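sorry for the late reply, my laptop died twice this morning and i had to redo everyting from scratch. anyway the thing you sent over, i finally got around to it. pasting the sequence first so we're on the same page, its 245 residues, then the predicted structure underneath. double check i copied it right bc i was rushing
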Amino acid sequence: MSLLVLGANSLIAQAAASHFAAEGEEIIFCGRKQDEPEKYANDFAIRYKCKTSAEYIDALDYLSHKKFIEEVFTKTPQIDYVLIVFGYLGTQETAQNNFNEAHRIIDTNYTGVVSVCELLAAEFESVKKGNITVISSVAGDRGRQSNYMYGSAKGGLSVYLSGLRNRLYKSGVNVLTIKPGFVNTPMTYGMPLPKLLVSSPETIGKIIYRAMKKRKSIVYAPFFWWWIMKIITSIPEFIFKKLKL
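ok and here's the structure:
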């Protein structure tokens, strides 16, 4: 079996992949910067003595996605798991005043993922098996003034994955939505986050690995975020809109 990682530079993706590598499964690292996938592939091959390879993909180069998927599955037809970790937090204030920033946030977190997922869906649907796992976010459960551009993209992504999961169920293809809370990664460095609610990439990676193996549908990571978001989404709008969140 093989794991295809789209977004090799992600610490969360690397942490999840390490569990597959420890089992001896092949890891295919794919990323936007051509040297990074090779770096991680070489590192995993040495550390875990597993088979690895590296490929290039740009989440925003939609026209290249079809050829990319065709070539990857031709080289490694036994791909069983795909982990998609495309993401760009961006800056809310900049996005409000410059649509180029808003466009990048939306396209990286939503449009690019959808482009790849549709191609993967067709590939797995044809063989009646496969697992597609995508990193969404708890930020998509309710819009907040501090990051509603990012949150709206993740919210749309979660709804899309729900529909894709419904479509592919009859074909035996599992679609897993991961909704992490705060994670200590370069994306959140410098942000004033409550330490008790911040998880390590290793913790999230282990949760993802277990959820993928169990073919779960939607997983909050860690689980306590389910309770937090349950409370947040239950606040009436006439109250919520007055909060400074």
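The chain has one domain: 2-240.
thats about all i looked at so far, will dig more tmrw
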